[in-house]
Design a protein that fits this description.
single chain
Length: 90
């Protein structure tokens, strides 16, 4: 049939690894915010966004049939978000 069992297991392992990376990253962010006794600010929001978005792109790349150009555009969006200054010059 059309799908090889080894490719399916590889997809399952990749998705489980991405979910584990998400949970680990969220745990690290939570521990740092709690240790510094600070609130949920813009830097924390940016960190949570990156921790959730990059593994999601990995999952989409493995599970779906997205073209490489689409994945490159999504990664470019993440890079722009992470590297943006975020401060307005008012």
């Amino acid at each position: 049939m059309g799908i090889e069992p080894s490719a399916t297991w590889l997809q399952v392992v990749a998705v489980c690894g991405a979910v584990a990376a998400m949970l680990y990253g969220l745990n690290i962010i939570y521990k740092r915010v709690k240790a510094k006794n600070q609130g949920f600010g813009p830097a924390t929001l940016k960190a949570v966004g990156v921790v959730l978005f990059i593994p999601t792109i990995l999952i989409l790349a493995v599970v779906t049939d997205f073209q490489s150009e689409t994945l490159a555009a999504l990664l470019g969006t993440v890079a722009g978000y992470v590297l943006s200054n975020g401060k307005s010059d008012d």
